[in-house]
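A reminder before we start the practical. When you read a complex entry, don't treat the lines as separate problems. The point of joint prediction is that each chain is placed relative to the others, so the output describes one connected object in space. Small molecules and nucleic acid strands, if listed, are placed in the same frame. In the example below there are two entries. Take a minute to note the order of the lines before looking further.
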Amino acid sequence: MFGYAGKILFIDLTSRVVRTEPTEKYAADFLGGRGIATKIAYDLIPAEADAFDPENALVMMTGPLTGAAPSSSRIDVVSLSPVTNLLGGSSAGGDFGAVLKFAGYDGIVITGKAEKPTGIRIIDDEVTFHDAEHCWEYDVYDTVDCIKRLGREDVQVACIGKAGANLVKTAGISFSKRNLAARGGLGAVMGSKNLKAIAVAGTKGIKVRDTKRLMETNLEIERRMLESPSFKKYESWHANISLSLLKARRPYFGDYEEEFWEEAEEAAKNAKRFFEEMAKVRPNSCFACPLRCWAWVEYKGEEAPMVACQGTFPAIIFILKIKDPELAWKVYLRLQKEGLDIMSTAAVIAYASRVGLVRLGSGEILKLIDEIVNREGPGNVLAEGVKKASEHFGVPAVYVKGGMESWSSDVRPFRGVSLAGAVSESGSISRAIHGFPESSYYTKPEKAKKVAKEIVGDESAAEPSSYRGKAKLVAYFEDEHIIADSLGVCDTPMLSIPLELWAEALSAATGMEFTPEKLHFYAGKIRTLERMFNVRRGVDREKDTLSERLFRSVIRSGPWAGVGIDREKFEEMKLEYYGLRGWDENGIPTEETLERYGLEW
Amino acid sequence: MPYLIVHEEGCIGCHTCEMVCSLSHEGVINPDLSRIHVLGYKGEKFPVMCLQCEDAPCELVCPMEAIHMQNGVRMVDDEKCIRCKMCTLVCPVGGVLYDYINNKMIRCDLCGGDPQCAKYCPMNVIEVVQDEKVPEARKRGVRVLYGEAD
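Here is the predicted structure of the whole assembly.
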């Protein structure tokens, strides 16, 4: 097979049986990455299984372009999420995906549950199990160092920290020390399987169909990236992202407070000063990517890699209301080292402040993080996520679909965000509408309007608080994200480079011919399969919703004063969205739709 | 033949050079078959490849005298080479590599005058300079490394 590595590795931890299946079996129907992972999850995970049951499968899949085109280093992780008890998914960059393909595998499927803490090492055809008892409680950094000392320095590692081992539901899977498949509590799934780490090294390489055509397309993609005006800005992204999010009017403060945090600008300026003057920042990139969106940040002898684009650092300063950048840095280090999803954990801590467990903006936060990681005292409840915590404390909380903590954007004024939060399968909005026009309406209005005009034919669809055209925009952006995740391309460049070029690179690498229309067809198919997975678990129109508190909350001050969500208009958006997807008014895919995509229950 | 100069402070460790090098030489993407390698620790990264040294240790150590300078590029004569890999041991920068798939020694051949790594490097870390612009000392890369430049 060209473009693909050709095999998918199936590992059953209960019986320690290792086998492979040809990727060919799935590739023509589900493309790769997120598509194949969803198909395998649909086939393997029973409808009545619980996320921590041995029957749950953890599927990591790369796409046909992973390691073969610029900015294509992604690996997609899909499993039953313990947070929502629905399909959970998250993707990560770094080098792991590419190296897994060099070892000869398009993906790894983990089922069963190991008897004792275990690590898996994959060196080409050699798959070995290792005792991980001694490092079970290590944080991510120590785990990676420990595994590298096992014999090979050049392995790439996917692992969980102590939080994942303790089944904390905001734990993600760390890829080496930096990239995180953060959302959906997938780290806890790995912990429930008694699997501490997977290490991979490979020497086989990826065969491609048409070398010359691929190299020419890659050069063209790269040229467009380098020529785009935003390319230069990536270098100073860490310093500027907080201020630019604030300018885009996106952050929310504390536990979805209704008052604007007056000191937000000061906090963002402090963060800018931190990255520009106090810390040493060295830009870096994932495999084959020119964008350098993450950097090694060093401050007072401690260092950590930091990815700018998802806004993890701004999440800490805005949600936890931290003005002192040194404290924000300490919080970041703590969360990153434990492999925790920063957005979700910050939301959990903000909720804890509402019930009086912690004071936001103070050093108490660090202690609470330790309690969550170790599941001590109130941390034991908070480790279950905001929805469970709110049921325990009886104080309503804010969350999106199924109990997932919300994204970095305030849900209330952004209609697209609220719709995506309700209908997206994993509740993970970053997997659906990252780069959405309304997100940049106040920073790049011209571009936002142009995109909205192109997709729905109406400029006003770019306005955040307008309900018009949002369903179509969300469906379109979801498709683009599904294509990106299925090919193994990163979202950010995927959206700014024409889809024709990616289709061309894919055709050159695999030898099969693809067009943008064909890719959008695949996206619709994969989206419907994701829906089927959840419908099988009881999701319908009623379950496609946000937490009750969000509908009652009205912002009182700041740029969004007076804004809230109108429930009726929200329901209308949902109906419009179902129609576009070919689902009935209850959100169930119709027979015609299933037939069109060739899917079966 | 041109020379390749590395401006290591700009490298972002994206390994694009390894990708295009193995793709253009072998038609597969495999960093192990790349003639250029990104070395580094944490944030500090930079690519290394054969420096085309004068008085090259690889040439001096070769028991079969299989390594010679041809048109400004150091080449290995596959017929003479017995794959003892002594050259990989003495090269101070790791510029000589063993291709375990095709069982031969591989090294940077400057792509016949149009180095692909320099063309694809997004940060312009790898620069192609013409022969006459390269200072004498640079050509004796190894001697400079050991502080023996005259």
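Discuss with your neighbour: The domain at 3-145 of chain B is CATH 3.30.70.20 (Alpha-Beta Plaits). What might explain this?
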